[in-house]
Write a sequence for this structure.
DNA sequence: ACACGTCGAACAATGTGTAT
DNA sequence: ATACACATTGTTCGACGTGT
């Protein structure tokens, strides 16, 4: 297999080169385990959340998701583990972003593994891989619903014809069990946990490997994966800020060192609460903001001076209690500045940071005492502060040490790349928020105008660089999700690249804007994905509305009545409901979504006062609570409907590709006698894959789901 | 449940003066 | 020429509301 991997690696790097990209070979991750394994685990793509980023193996327990996978239905000598894409990447979006021939190169290699491996069961993690195998790779599978305790799940039969070395007389090569990505379980829903546990139990039973009961349901994986990982991942994958400490930028996986830096200890100990016994004092104060540049200018000289005062005690320092108070105070507020949101709980973490930051200056950290490393860090920071320009915002910003002060930027206006910010500033009041810099954008759209540069990494939040913005502690949390539903400017050719004229939906010809304009002209209009594209409306101020006593913030609709349009809030709600789906599925949904009307509806009555509104609201709440008590079955039904809706939404193209197609198979009965289907219950097998190119059209195979309004909705959309 | 309308406030985007 | 700091103003937000 080494030889095959080596060949693949050469081919992969060359394919990138043919696309004009130079990539590092040592970020390719090897397949782990033997081809004779009983079970194969098929994951998505390796990330940088690891202690072994280079020349790595897939079986890398310093990566939390992989650790979770390896914790259940996985026996070291009987399990094969590989990723669908073998290239380590900061974002696991290779399936969307890599050139198609690169993706195919990975898939061809993995397919040779799948062709050669003996495992009767393959567990596939995550919807992205599932969709890819079903749609783009076009594999043909048959669906096999289970029964009894397992009647809410099904397994998938992988047809022999999917393999180039197909053997005559065999209908199926193996069983595939599609399960959710482990990262999903940092925010578990009970029903999802139960389902995942069942799926893995079935996979393990068929394969003949051990598994752990209620592994996901009882969060038993937490004995393997550190507790703080939850907040970090939440932030990284879901953009939710849980604690100030693990805010914003900590999502950048390349910089974050998981607590499994102590993996040996953690695993042996199996108790996350005392992972680093003796060093719990190291945990940073959660509530305190980092030092601003201004504060550091004052405090650093004092901190540096303590080194000589305490010189002969330095080697004895082991935890925070041994430090001079001011050093402890300094350290506790470096969570963002030095450590960039990483949780630092002990000397090992300090050493890792020291090594990472100190690669360009100072001695390597191995043989240094804790105190020497800490003073090394203090001095690094002092040198940085000295070089910084004096700014009137110094009390509101802080800087990080290289390499964490380099941020790739794109133009806020046109989203084209800008030169990177090599001295990134961060907001003290808003943890982890990058402070925008304005610079010239030389793209065709912006033509050298001054534009805001925002981080290219969309997981890094940012804030406008003015005093009022930087002083405000809470942001309104601007929604960016709607952007997922609009076209890239470079996909807007022909008519879509032309300006769009719009006018107030109420005033039409009488529309009045500032500067004697009667039309709102949008030079670079935003269009939705899917066909036909819809113009995304704006709501500028209409002076005519104002003069006639209306608020003047009505929607503006295209003057050309043939241009369909939609408003942004609608896009947000679509993204909320269908955000988990593949982009092309979303495009289909958007394509058939109703356009917004071109005429105003009947004016509403007078608004009640705010006080009255609040009183009404509390009344409604009470009434709701009462009615819940009186009629709990209604609430239960509603909840079921909600779950059904989310099932349908989540099931995406996978479920909706189902069509009834009876067929026969004996592989299952051979390998899994315990799962033998009762004869009285005639199978309703379904075949999936390639059955439908229009995913949401067919939901006939979902007869086991309760009839709900959501189903009506699906039909309307289709 | 959905499709909007309305509101006050926060935000985005850019103009302009000034320092380097 | 460039970046910064501040000022200004249009745009967009979430919350809350009504009508269908």
């Amino acid at each position: 297999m080494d030889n095959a991997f080596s060949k693949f690696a050469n081919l992969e790097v060359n394919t990138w080169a043919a696309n004009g990209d130079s990539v590092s070979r040592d970020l390719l991750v090897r397949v782990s385990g033997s081809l004779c394994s009983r079970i194969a685990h098929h994951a998505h793509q390796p990330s940088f959340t690891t202690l072994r980023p280079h020349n790595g193996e897939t079986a890398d327990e310093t990566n939390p998701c992989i650790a979770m996978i390896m914790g259940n239905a996985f026996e070291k000598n009987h399990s094969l583990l590989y990723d669908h894409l073998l290239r380590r990447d900061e974002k696991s979006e290779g399936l969307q972003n890599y050139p198609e021939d690169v993706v195919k190169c990975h898939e061809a290699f993995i397919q040779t593994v799948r062709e050669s491996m003996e495992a009767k069961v393959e567990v596939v993690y995550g919807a992205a891989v599932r969709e890819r195998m079903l749609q783009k790779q076009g594999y043909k599978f048959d669906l096999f619903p289970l029964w009894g305790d397992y009647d809410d799940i099904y397994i998938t039969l992988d047809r022999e014809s999917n393999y180039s070395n197909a053997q005559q007389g065999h209908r199926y090569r193996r069983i595939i069990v599609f399960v959710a990505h482990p990262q999903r379980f940092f925010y578990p829903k009970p029903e999802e946990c139960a389902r995942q546990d069942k799926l893995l139990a079935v996979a393990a039973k068929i394969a003949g490997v051990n598994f752990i009961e209620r592994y996901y349901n009882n969060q038993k994986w937490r004995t393997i994966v550190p507790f703080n990982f939850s907040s970090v991942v939440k932030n990284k994958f879901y953009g939710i800020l849980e604690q100030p400490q693990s805010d914003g930028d900590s999502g950048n996986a390349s910089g974050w060192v998981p607590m499994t830096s102590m993996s040996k200890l953690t695993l042996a100990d199996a108790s996350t609460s005392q992972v680093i016994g003796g060093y719990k004092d190291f945990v940073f104060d959660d509530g305190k903001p980092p030092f601003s540049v201004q504060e550091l200018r004052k405090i650093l000289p004092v901190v540096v001076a303590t080194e000589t005062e305490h010189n002969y005690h330095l080697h004895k320092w082991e935890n925070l209690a041994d430090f001079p108070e001011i050093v402890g105070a300094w350290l506790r507020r470096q969570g963002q500045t030095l450590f960039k949101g990483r949780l630092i709980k002990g000397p090992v973490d300090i050493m890792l940071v020291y090594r990472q930051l100190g690669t360009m200056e100072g001695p390597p950290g191995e043989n240094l005492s804790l105190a020497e490393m800490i003073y090394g860090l203090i001095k690094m920071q002092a040198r940085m502060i000295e070089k910084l320009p004096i700014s009137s915002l110094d009390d509101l910003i802080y800087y990080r040490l290289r390499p964490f002060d380099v941020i790739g930027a794109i133009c806020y206006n046109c989203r084209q790349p800008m030169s990177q910010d090599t001295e990134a500033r961060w907001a003290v009041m808003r943890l982890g928020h990058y402070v925008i810099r304005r610079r010239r954008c030389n793209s065709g759209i912006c033509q050298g105008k001054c534009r805001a540069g925002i981080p290219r990494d969309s997981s890094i939040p940012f804030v406008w660089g003015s005093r009022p913005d930087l002083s405000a502690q809470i942001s309104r949390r601007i929604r960016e999700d709607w952007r997922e539903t609009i076209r890239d400017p470079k996909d807007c050719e022909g008519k879509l690249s032309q300006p769009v004229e719009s006018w107030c939906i109420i005033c039409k010809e009488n529309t009045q804007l500032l500067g004697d304009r009667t039309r709102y002209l949008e030079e670079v209009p935003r269009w939705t994905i899917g066909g036909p594209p819809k113009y995304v409306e704006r709501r500028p101020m209409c002076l005519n509305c104002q003069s006639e006593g209306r608020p003047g913030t009505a929607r503006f609709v295209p003057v050309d009545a043939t241009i369909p349009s939609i408003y942004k809030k609608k896009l947000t709600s679509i993204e909320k409901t269908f955000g988990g789906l593949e982009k092309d599925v979303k495009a289909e949904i958007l394509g058939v979504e109703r356009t917004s009307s071109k005429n105003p509806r009947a004016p509403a009555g007078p608004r009640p006062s705010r006080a009255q509104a609040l009183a009404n609201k509390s009344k409604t709440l009470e009434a709701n609570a009462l009615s819940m008590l009186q009629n709990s079955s209604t609430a239960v039904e509603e909840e079921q409907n909600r779950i059904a809706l989310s099932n349908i939404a989540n099931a995406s193209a996978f479920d909706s590709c189902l069509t009834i197609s009876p067929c026969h198979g004996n592989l299952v009965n051979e390998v899994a006698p315990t799962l033998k289907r009762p004869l009285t219950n005639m199978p309703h097998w379904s075949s999936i894959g390639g059955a439908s190119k229009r995913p949401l059209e067919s939901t006939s195979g979902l007869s086991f789901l309760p009839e709900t309004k959501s189903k009506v909705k699906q039909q309307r959309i289709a």
Remarks:
- Residues 406-478 of chain A form one domain.
- The longest strand of chain A covers residues 172-179.
